[in-house]
Amino acid sequence: MRALRRRTLAGQLLFLQLGIIAVVLVSVGAVSLAQSQATFNRVEGRRVSALAEQLATNPLVLFNLSLPEQRTGLATLALQTVTQSRVTAVTIADEDEKVRVSTDPSLETRPLPLGARSVGVGASWSGTMDIDGDRMLVSQVPVLSVAEGHYGEHLGTVMIAEDFPSIWERLRGASSYLLTYLGIALLLGVAGSWLLARRIKRQTLGLEPHEITGLAEHREALLYGIAEGVLALDPHDRITLVNDVARRLLDLPEHAAGMSLRDLRVEGRLLDVLTGTGPDGDRSGDGGGDGGDEDPRDEVVIRRGRVLVMNRMRVTRDGRHLGTVTTLRDRTALADLERELGSFRSTTQLLRAQTHEFANQLHTISGLIQLGEYDEVVRYVDAVTERRQSLDLLVNSRVRDPAVSALLMAKASLASERRADLRVSEETSLDRLEADDSADVATVVGNLVDNAIDAVSGGGPGQWVEVEIRQDASSVQVVVSDSGPGIPPEVAQEVFANGFTTKAATSGDRGIGLALTRLVCQRRGGEVQLGTSEGGGAMFVAHLGITPVAPAGTGNPAEAHEDTRAEAHR
Fold it and tell me: Is the dihedral of CA 486, 492, 497, 500 positive or negative?
């Protein structure tokens, strides 16, 4: 039993095929035997019946049976019939079924066995009968008188019996080439089974059933136990494998396996990343496996409000392209965290810029003091103070939300360090917002201003970035334009879908700054669009919904009182 359990897959298939061949051969033999039996009954039955009828009309038989106890020549006639016709036995009996002559000695001492009762009254009968334990084909024919006055009188019965052939004789008689055919079929079946077993062993890489089962179980556990999405495509872009995470992230139906990406209506940037199609429509050779031309890299795709990071690998074996495997990670939560961390990083950069600006001012004041230009020191300090106060007054008068106002003043210092001028449009008007609304508006403004400053950096003197913020009862519009080189036309169509920043648009590097901006706007029921500014640079227009502003007099009395006191103090 243990040896049978350890038999290889090829061995099991070989023995199974041999068993099937044996069953087929036995079935063919059984059918041949049945056909031979039917042929023997039909052909030999007719011959035996004809011999019995011929013997029943023989004059010698008629003469002997017409006289009591007469047997002259009957024995010789019966023996001659057996010899010439090659039958087993010939028996002649009287009308009272008493045997007069029989070539079978066992029948001479007992009455003639009848195949049917009608034989005793002059009827014929043919069929099979057991005689002394042997199965025989028998024909019984009555002997009728032809003498005048006794015409048609029943004188006796003639019985001729023939043994059934053995199984070997029937097989040999079925067809002279049957055994040859069976032998050839057996050899072909054995050879085919052996070749089939070898082919299956080669196709399964020599793995046995329990090993294949283990691999399948491990694969299922791996695919459905990891937190990342996995999507496999064949060379024709049909999905061959997709786990639950990937199906959820890409919004695919449960029956997606076996369908092509175009049948599932996957389009745009997502289709390009999954199939490796470049901007010119050519298939890229990136990926891994055995034949990747480049190292795999992460691609950022925005899919229905999610920031997805996708990594596509090309799979080849023995120089044959088998398809691709793409892993997906949901970076939406990470993007939110990155947005929060970005605010701290931005604050650090702004503090560094202000520190650099203050250091330059202190160095200028120190130099003037060392030169003894005390009056010039006073004028320089007054000028710096006046410029700073004018900026603070300008921003605070138009942007009354503290977070956004502080952000713009800090960005002004950063722009100054980059040798650019940050302007606040005269059309700007923003009231105090709810905490969540203020954070999202600050995120949009910060990302767009950072991209604009990056775009104008290094562009020489006279570069500018302008911010315009407008607010109505339920939405805020943010317009950021710059004097930079603008967005190339080939990038402008997909800059948000690809997750580019403005800097990435000119350098080709990929980021998620604009993708996060668009994601925030879409969450707020708005959108962000790209245009061209009056100076030929880029202009981003973002719309996002906010908490509706309460009518005057319906707010918190305590807050209204505080605002009144603050206004009186000013």
Answer: negative
